[in-house]
Design brief:
Elements: H1 9-26, H2 34-50, H3 56-68, H4 72-85, H5 90-102, H6 106-119, H7 123-139, H8 143-156, H9 161-179
Length: 180
């Protein structure tokens, strides 16, 4: 049908969504190689997107592809666009935080991660996000805020190895700064 109607952008949008859905459900185990699924998704969704046919799902898919391609700057507008459709999606806030972090925009990363943490219900994801926030504050040399979020992560998911590792390192740092 696309051969007869190459400007059928709603169909391009549907095909892009289809390829991303297959990728999400089956990954490399599908009938097609993983990279081919992502390439076709990007081709169809981007064509529809450029012509005004977009939705939350295709915005998410394009943002994910850009993150996978290590292009966080290009991922940011897609995640922001998604949030205009659905501002209460914790995963998208988390991915936006990751994209900002990879761009070196730490405060924007922390702000997005805080939104994700507020929305997440799953304790493991909530604690992982709190650790991300703590690391962001540590990179900004705000040890007290870093410690605050590490303690929060430990309350949410007690005895997590990664939380305890960063918590111990930060506590030692705080103690060494107090004696300096």
């Amino acid at each position: 049908r696309l051969e007869k109607e190459p400007d059928n952008f709603p169909l391009h949008l549907c095909l892009g969504r289809y390829f991303f859905e297959v990728y999400q459900k089956f990954g490399g185990e599908a009938f097609y190689p993983e990279q081919m699924l992502l390439t076709r998704m990007e081709m169809h969704c981007a064509l529809a997107y450029k012509n005004g046919y977009k939705d939350a799902y295709s915005s998410f898919a394009l943002g994910q592809k850009k993150l996978l391609d290590k292009e966080p700057l290009q991922a940011i507008p897609f995640f922001e666009d998604y949030l205009s459709f659905n501002p209460l999606n914790a995963e998208v806030h988390f991915n936006l935080a990751l994209a900002y972090k990879l761009q070196g925009r730490r405060m924007k990363s922390i702000q997005s991660a805080i939104k994700a943490m507020e929305i997440y219900h799953d304790p493991q994801l909530k604690a992982e996000t709190a650790r991300m926030i703590a690391i962001g504050y540590a990179e900004l040399k705000d040890t007290n805020r870093s410690l605050e979020f590490l303690r929060l992560a430990d309350q949410i998911e007690p005895s997590n190895y990664y939380t305890l590792k960063y918590l111990l390192q930060t506590e030692i740092l705080v103690d060494s700064l107090a004696f300096a």
